[in-house]
Backbone:
């Protein structure tokens, strides 16, 4: 639970909102503290009174032109340093008993020039992706935003002839940070972006995926997931359509036979083979008949083997 603010800080915050009014969220407030601004006016006007409030209003009015400024997010520290130098310069001007109206106006013009020299905000590159390089900082509200684009990129259709090679490149058209990780998923026989249909593709962790040779079972949607420090940046989709006849010399019967061999129902793994015991076999009604037949067959097989061996020995010894 957050601790309540000290009683002395509440009037200060209310005074800041009352003085700055509609310009309360300008760059001046984002990159300088109320204590710093109040200290500048205290040096200019001296004791508390109407003069200090007038000074604070003039301070806010001079920087109202920067209220709607947007800057590159990476330039925040640079702009903060510039505002700190500006506060120091205003303190020196106040100590020299200068006019705060002139000092504030000159300081605001200099800050406009500083902002104009900052690295520009990069444009969002459609159609998809979390593009951190295009993040921008808004002085109205002191917050940042990124491109309002979906993480899922449109599905790309890829048609490959059976037996050829399919190549997918997980490349986006906007800059990526370092230490990127790639993972691949597959949804068989579907053209979809629904992540619930995809399963992981093992041993596929590069930005390029290759299938060789392509077979009908590869028809479906391949998805590449790009992450940075476990943060999702984009998902790319490739729908692979396999065309072309089967290889030469392969009959329809061979195709059907191969498909049967490849087919492995999931429930088959749950079926265990039955291995009856000797007692269970003898308990069956036909156990005696089956036992006699099996014994006779075994004796006949052994006798035939013995006769063949004796004949071979006699034939060899005679020659």
Residues:
């Amino acid at each position: 639970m957050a601790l309540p603010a000290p009683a002395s800080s509440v009037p200060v915050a209310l005074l800041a909102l009352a003085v700055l009014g509609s310009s309360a969220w300008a760059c001046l407030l984002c990159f300088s503290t109320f204590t710093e601004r109040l200290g500048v006016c205290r040096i200019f006007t001296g004791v508390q009174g109407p003069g200090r409030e007038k000074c604070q209003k003039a301070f806010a009015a001079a920087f109202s032109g920067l209220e709607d400024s947007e800057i590159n997010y990476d330039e925040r520290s640079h702009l903060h340093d510039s505002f700190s130098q500006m506060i120091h310069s205003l303190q020196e001007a106040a100590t020299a008993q200068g006019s705060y109206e002139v000092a504030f106006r000159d300081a605001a013009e200099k800050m406009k020039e500083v902002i104009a020299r900052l690295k520009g905000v990069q444009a969002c590159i459609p159609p998809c992706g979390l593009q951190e390089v295009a993040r921008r900082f808004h002085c109205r509200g002191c917050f940042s935003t990124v491109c309002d684009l979906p993480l899922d990129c449109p599905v790309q259709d890829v048609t490959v002839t059976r037996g050829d090679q399919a190549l997918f490149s997980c490349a986006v058209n906007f800059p990526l940070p370092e230490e990127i990780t790639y993972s691949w998923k597959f949804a068989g026989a579907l053209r979809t972006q629904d992540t619930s249909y995809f399963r992981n593709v093992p041993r596929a962790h590069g930005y390029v995926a290759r299938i060789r040779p392509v077979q009908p079972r590869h028809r479906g949607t391949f998805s590449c997931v790009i992450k940075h420090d476990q943060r999702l940046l984009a998902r790319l989709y490739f729908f692979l359509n396999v065309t072309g006849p089967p290889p030469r010399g392969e009959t329809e019967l061979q195709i059907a036979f191969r498909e049967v061999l490849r087919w492995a129902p999931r429930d088959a793994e749950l079926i265990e083979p039955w291995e009856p015991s000797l007692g269970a076999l003898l308990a069956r009604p036909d156990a005696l008949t089956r036992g006699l037949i099996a014994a006779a067959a075994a004796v006949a097989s052994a006798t035939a083997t013995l006769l063949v061996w004796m004949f071979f020995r006699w034939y060899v010894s005679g020659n």
In short: Residues 287-318 form the longest helix (32 residues). Residues 1-25, 264-289 have pLDDT under 50 and may be disordered. The CA atoms of residues 66 and 112 lie 7 Å apart.
